[in-house]
Design brief:
CATH topology of one domain: Arc Repressor Mutant, subunit A
Largest sheet: none
Number of helices: 9
Shape: elongated
Distance between the termini: 60 Å
Radius of gyration: 20 Å
CATH architecture of one domain: Orthogonal Bundle
Helix content: 55-70%
């Protein structure tokens, strides 16, 4: 099988899913010594619209928002090199549905309020590990009533 050139490799990665520029650079840098050529390729892809930070953010938010809280998603976006202004634009959408998402995630896992402090701590840690904020966790742990 012939060796793929950098452009073909990048197109193959982008055809499977959206990538951030940093993520694509990391994956492709293992296959080239020419850093300037890689940057030129990424610039070309951005100009053509094949590599889009905005689309990447939308894809991550859509894929993760049903299972994770805003803190988790924001952390993931930062780890993948997304600009802060794009993250700030996505935050209102994430915050809007965070309580409902937390309740859904909590219900799938536990479905009953804890009867003791140990159980309460375990459920709170679970929600924290999913990236939900302490205010959201407190509201979920108060019960399933709609106290808005």
């Amino acid at each position: 099988m012939p060796e793929l050139n950098l452009r073909e490799r990048a197109l193959g990665l982008l055809s499977r899913r959206e990538h951030s520029r940093l993520e694509l650079r990391r994956k492709l840098s293992a296959h080239t010594e020419d850093a300037d050529g890689l940057e030129a390729l990424l610039d070309d892809f951005e100009q053509r619209g094949w590599l889009s930070a905005q689309r990447f953010v939308e894809q991550v938010v859509h894929a993760r928002s049903g299972r994770y809280g805003s803190r988790y998603i924001v952390h993931e976006l930062r780890e993948k090199g997304v600009a802060e202004e794009l993250i700030e634009q996505a935050l209102p959408q994430l915050k809007e549905s965070e309580l409902e998402t937390a309740r859904t995630v909590w219900t799938k896992k536990f479905d009953a309020l804890p009867t003791d402090a140990k159980g309460r701590a375990r459920q709170m840690r679970f929600l924290m590990s999913r990236g939900f904020g302490s205010d959201t966790i407190r509201r979920v742990m108060k019960g399933s009533g709609e106290e808005e």
